[in-house]
Amino acid sequence: MLRGLIKGDNAFVPTAALRVAVRSGVDVAALLVTEQGRVRGDSDIVFDGAPAHPSGAVRLAGAEDGTVWLDADLTGAEEAVTRVLLVVSTEEGALRDAHGLSVEVFGPDGATVVGYEVTDAGDETAMVLAELYRRSGGWKFRAVGQGYVDGLTGLAVDHGVDVSEEPRETPAQAPVQAPVAVPAQAPVPAPARIRRPTREELLDMTPDQIRALREELAQAQASAPETPQDPAQAQAPLTASPPPGPRPDPSVWTCGPVFEPRTFTGRHSEVITAKDLPPGPVMVAVALEGDGHQALWPLDASNTKGRYLINTGEKGFRGRVLATVPANGTLRLQLQASDSWQVRVLPLAEARRLTEDTLESEGPELLLHTAGTADAAFRYRGESNFVVFLYRLAGHTDSTTLPKHGSAAINEIGARRDTVPLPEGPVLVQVSLAEGPWSARLKDVQPHGSGWDADGPAKLSEPYQPEPRRALGWLRRARR
Asked: Could you write out the DSSP letters of every residue in 52-100?
């Protein structure tokens, strides 16, 4: 059943290969933008004239019966990309004439994850319909509905797209024999005194306010002095940036349900019941303020205790553990506590990301590795057991279970350092036991597809071939 959001609402989606349907016969594009809300270049624009992003993370998958389909593989999104904007536009008329304008996101299993229908479109001819954005180590979907009366050009300028008609790159077959001057069409940065609004501020601005800001920036750019070119750089031939290397389709994360987190608080022992959850593995974050023996168990349909999720005598315990929601959608937990506590039931999408930056923690934890093959370096400073399991999620299609973890990657006692080789992501890394501080980071990280799997070397996709000024075909429709 479609979970319909209203404008401004958001919801978690799986960090996985998603399918997105945009309906009502409009033109559809996707902009991959950075934290500043701006594209890095034309290659970050995906539309019918350039239907695939170089990373393979977003591609147009076809259109039929007024519906445009996009494939969004969020595990393949580059770290610099923090948002994927879903953009719609019309060549004739306004978006108010696009009846039933909507977007629907489907998970790897084909089930609807979230959806949004526009009910307040007006004279706009272009709109940021929705966005997928990073949050808490995973991804969320937001119903945006931000329209632009001045069409794609206005929307493009606000997101850093170069709207000039001239190509920005010298053709490779025309060698440069003399110093090269700065191209006249190269944009000059606006003076620092004019502050660009944040993405959140833009969402709250009216079209008139956006146009006024654009005019102010244009005036500042026109009055800014030209930046002289470094003579040393002028002697070098002007060539296009080398294309990215071959990139495979990265493995997708298809495990675990997605839902709004549930939070429970209390004091002393309690039975916790979380209802209406999708069946499957979830993360339970526990904070206990008391001391002495404290514990957490799952309860089955007959209220029989399962195996310990937490069993501790540590004062001020903090940790995140795995639990499984049964088929009836109700997770029941029995908590033994000596003081106040908080328990949160979270989707696996909120697992902390394992990267090359050192991650510090205490107690049990769940981490997500999404890069290629790598080594995970752990340092444990406790005195008791330190146990780590790996769940390889690539190719696992049953969202109601986790794959078997096999034997422990680490199972030691006392302070120590360990390095664990990780397969290509996604991999769920479970620090199952840790009564003391520990840290983890990735080393020797390889790109997706550079390693070997059980069937031999990973298969690579074709190299991306850049298309000069690919944005122009997208923008020209707004200038007819």
From this structure: B-TTSSEEEEEEETTEEEEEEEGGGS-TT--EEEEEEE-SSS-GGGSTT
Lowest mean pLDDT among 30-44, 75-89, 147-161, 244-258: 244-258
Q: 10 Å Cβ neighbour count for 356?
A: 12
- Pick from 151, 6, 133, 140: which is nearest to 88 by CA? 151
Cα–Cα nearest to 32, from 161, 126, 138: 161
- Read off φ and ψ for residue 231, nearest 5 degrees: -55, -35
Comparing CA positions, the residue from 42, 20, 45, 47 lying closest to residue 32 is 45
Q: What is the DSSP letter of 47?
A: B
In contact, 76 and 448? CB cutoff 8 Å:
yes
Between CA 318 and CA 286 the distance in angstroms is 6
In the beta sheet, which residues pair with residue 47? Answer: 50
Q: Is residue 384 pLDDT above 60, yes or no? A: yes
pLDDT at 205: 57
Closest to 144 (Cα-Cα) out of 125, 169, 172, 116: 116
pLDDT for 66 equals: 87
Whether residues 217 and 267 fall in one domain: no
Same-domain pairing of 135 and 272: no
Beta bridge partners of 118: none
In this prediction, residue 62 carries a pLDDT of 78
Q: Are residues 291 and 208 in the same domain?
A: no
What contacts 297, CB < 8 A, 6 or more positions away?
A: 305, 306, 307, 308, 309, 333, 334
Cα separation, 209 vs 261, in Å, equals: 36
* Cβ contact 427:375 at 8 Å: no
Question: What range does the domain containing 111 cover?
Answer: 4-165+187-222+243-247
- DSSP-derived letter for residue 200 is H
Provide the domain count of the chain.
2
E strand or H helix at 223: helix 207-223
Mean of pLDDT values over 111-137: 93
**Distance, CA of 347 to CA of 360 (rounded, Å):** 21
**Whether residues 215 and 313 fall in one domain:** no
117 in Cβ contact with 110 (< 8 Å): no
